[in-house]
Amino acid sequence: MSGKTCFVVQGFGKKTDYTDGRVLDLDASYAIIKEAVEATGVECIRADEIPHTGMIDLPMYEMLLQADLVIADLSTYNVNAAFELGVRYGLRPGATIIVAESQFKYPFDVGHIVILNYKHLGEDIGVQEARRFRLALAEAIRNALARQETDSPVYTLLPDLQPPQRGIARPTPAPAGAGRTVAVESAARFFQDASAITGDVASGSDEAAPALPPTAKALLDQALAAINPADGRPSDFPRAVKLLREVRKQRPNDSFVVQQLALATYKSKLPDAEAALLEACRILEPLGPATTNDPETLGLWGAVHKRLWEQRSRPADLEEAIASYQRGFYLKQDWYNGINLAFLLDLRAREWLRAGEHDEAVADSVQARRIRREVVRLATPLADIADDDPQKRFWLVATLWEAALGLGDDAALARWDAEAGALKVPQWMHDSRQEQGRKLRELLASYRSLQSA
């Protein structure tokens, strides 16, 4: 390595692009960015990889000032990334690169700035596109570091402006490392620790360095592994909750972290199912579920209220769940929100029949069938595409299975049942599908019985 450091300004985890409802896995983007950076001999770090205690603000500002290179990913219109890019432009004249997903729509005030685009598939980046983007970004990095040209619009338009410097200038060179600040030292420790693990650091001293505090990324990776363990092992939701609470201390406003914490909380059923659901509601409140356009938040809010209805049979919970799934489905046109919306419409149809409202019941029942047919239309082409992620494919196949069950399509039901059962995924996913199928069969049978009464 050259000893130079690149700081990547980017969200982490899955984030929603509110302009079109797409969910992008920014960790997949970061993996390609990191490969490109390291291919040029530069060390690469993102904010969630910096060991620190408390808030990330101080080490973030220090890295924006002192990093030899900054790469800002504006994908999903991340306002934090845009803010940090502006800070970097104010602090340093050059060595700043902007990247964004190809469907990023340039705002007016960055239309004159060069942005390096890449194509994202949502969950990951295709092999050919990853190779193209990696090579293009590596070339841009080499040029930025070699030419040392001004790319900040601040210093371009104000050429007599001098970059800020910390502390008082010394008449003689400072000892190596003396000028390092907390963030830079933490980053150096991070790279040294990673190198030691892979055997890249010579063992010149027997003195062990103090243990690094866990990074937000390390904690999040452990939490996601506890939620979705490999090889079909049981999920450990209580452990995931503990880990995600620690991540949230470092990243309190990160929507992905909040969403995963809410999911793990209600899945834990601790101290009991209803209390866990109410706590999940409290966790999701800061994301504004009543007004948000984020389909992920809407899906979780709907799931929580669907389960609250099952716990306490309050009509307000059922209406809230339907409203959430409905908004998510029409925003994103996705099969996940659609299949849940269809089930809840059938559930409300049964409640209408019990209340003697036959016309309302028929209207909801017809709409449920139409939505299931739309779900089949949306999901079937995706099922014909090979997918190496068994969990992602499982939910797609389970959705088609449930749609077939609701529509009475026995041939499709048998096909998707066999495929879902053969996929190696955590046991809670298989249990969830079977439980949902049981509920739907009972619901449809109950509806038919009330209709014929």
Helix/strand layout:
Layout: E1 5-9, E2 14-16, E3 23-25, H1 26-39, E4 43-46, H2 57-66, E5 69-73, H3 79-91, E6 96-101, E7 116-118, H4 127-147, H5 153-157, H6 182-198, H7 216-227, H8 237-250, H9 255-268, H10 273-284, H11 295-312, H12 315-332, H13 335-354, H14 358-383, H15 390-407, H16 410-422, H17 427-452
Parallel strand pairs: 1-4, 1-5, 5-6, 6-7
Antiparallel strand pairs: 2-3
What does this molecule look like?
With 453 residues, the chain is α/β, with parallel strands linked by helices. The protein has 17 helices and seven strands. The chain has helices at 26-39, 57-66, 79-91, 127-147, 153-157, 182-198, 216-227, 237-250, 255-268, 273-284, 295-312, 315-332, 335-354, 358-383, 390-407, 410-422, 427-452; strands at residues 5-9, 14-16, 23-25, 43-46, 69-73, 96-101, 116-118. The strands form two sheets. The chain has a five-stranded parallel beta sheet with strand order 4-1-5-6-7, with helices on both faces. A two-stranded antiparallel ribbon has the order 2-3. Strand 2 and strand 3 (23-25) form a beta hairpin. The protein is elongated. The N and C termini lie far apart (78 Å). Mean pLDDT is 86; it is low at 168-180 and 189-206.
Query: How many β-strand runs?
Result: 7
User: What strand order characterises the main sheet?
Assistant: 4-1-5-6-7
Q: Tally the helices.
A: 17
Strand content: 5-15%
The secondary structure category is: alpha/beta
Shape: elongated
Characteristic terms for this protein:
17 helices; five-stranded parallel beta sheet; alpha/beta; single chain; 453 residues
